[in-house]
Design goal:
Shape: globular
Radius of gyration: 20 Å
Number of helices: 6
Largest sheet: none
Number of strands: 0
Helix content: over 70%
Strand content: under 5%
Order of helices and strands: HHHHHH
Structural class: mainly alpha
Length: 231
């Protein structure tokens, strides 16, 4: 009896740990978006319609966004462990969410190059440095991993017979890719996009983080239900 009781306690502990890791995924995205939204709205001389989120990591108050990057990245790494536990037969979704988290941590450690605000055709940006180039690489990892995770989960849900989840995941991935293309051109000073590049980037991040949170919440409910049935 004591052995069975010990096994039951271990199982319950495992369920609680999985739930905790999935909760990291529920809250990390909204907190990340809320933090850079508030900081962007209150930072003097910063224009969130034009400038990238990464520019908030510059200056005396830059530590707030650097902390936001690193903290969210760490939470996403925890979430990836929860995904692995909740979906033990899934290979790529946990790996891609982990890559997303690593990208955010890297984007926080390595600060972007200074940006010109407002950007103009006549402005000549400073020569990029190693730290700025590393920031850009990690940023590409962030958006690439996010789009890949959407695609991998969409494929999984389609095979499992969950068309609504599959469609939502696929649409989120498509919007992420389109958003990256649009704000990338805007930050490159493409006419018609330069004045809204920052907004497009924020919408793209919001869509991706919203999908990650919704997926985590859905898995949390499913896992909690399964845990109750097996109790």
């Amino acid at each position: 009896m004591s052995l069975m009781g010990g096994q039951g306690s271990a199982v319950q502990h495992g369920h609680r740990l999985t739930n905790l890791l999935l909760c990291c995924g529920v809250v990390a995205g909204p907190v990340f978006v809320a933090a850079f939204t508030v900081e962007g709205a209150t930072r003097e001389g910063y224009d969130p319609m034009i400038e990238p989120v990464s520019a908030l990591a510059l200056g005396d108050r830059g530590w707030t966004q650097r902390t936001n990057f690193v903290g969210t990245g760490a939470s996403m790494l925890a979430y990836s462990r929860g995904l692995r536990r909740a979906m033990p037969d899934a290979r790529w979704p946990p790996r891609l969410v982990a890559a997303f988290g690593i990208g955010l941590v890297g984007a926080g450690v390595f600060v972007t190059d200074p940006v010109t605000s407002p950007p103009t055709d006549e402005a000549s940006p400073a020569e990029p440095n190693v730290q700025g180039m590393l920031h850009n690489i990690f940023s590409m990892v962030v958006f690439g991993a996010l789009a890949g995770a959407c695609g991998a989960v969409a494929r999984r849900f389609a095979k499992a017979g969950h068309p609504a989840w599959a469609a939502y995941s696929a649409l989120s991935g498509l919007l992420t890719v389109c958003g990256v293309g649009l704000f990338g051109r805007g930050f490159g000073k493409a006419k018609g996009l330069v004045d809204v590049a920052g907004l497009i980037q924020r919408l793209t991040i919001g869509i991706g983080c919203g999908w990650l949170s919704t997926l985590a919440a859905g898995l949390l409910r499913s896992h909690a239900s399964n845990s109750a049935d097996s109790a």
